[in-house]
Structure formats: C-alpha cells, structure tokens
Design a protein that fits this description.
Layout lengths: L32 H28 L7
C-alpha cells in the first residue's frame, strides 16, 4: 500500500481527480476549461460593475463637476 492509498477501502478505485499511475509525477487533472472561463468572466463582471457604480456615485456626488 502506498501513501496515496492510505485510508482507502480495498478494491475502491481512485476518484476522478486522481491521475492514473502511468501519469508523469506532478500531473493533476484540471477543471473543465469552460468552468475556468466562467469564473474569470464572473470576476471581470463584478469588477466592471463595481467600477461603473463607483463612477456613477462619484458623478452624482459632484466629484467630476467643475467648480
């Protein structure tokens, strides 16, 4: 039994996140590309929306109006 198999019941195959034994050392499965793109798009959307709200509040407070 290897350290990777400790605590595993006999005969239970490794989960989908465990690379096969023939994989190179350090190899790991990554999430689907669409999931990564979705997370990045959501982060950009949040950042852009907060910037727009900040600009709108600054404009309404008179920060950009000449004196």
């Amino acid at each position: 039994m290897t350290s990777r198999d400790e605590g595993r019941a006999d005969g239970v195959p490794p989960g989908p996140d465990v690379p096969p034994p023939e994989a190179e050392p350090g190899a790991a499965r990554r999430g689907p590309a669409w999931l990564i793109v979705g997370v990045v798009a959501a982060a950009l959307l949040v950042c852009c929306c907060s910037a727009v709200v900040g600009l709108a509040l600054s404009w309404s407070a008179g920060v950009f109006h000449p004196r």
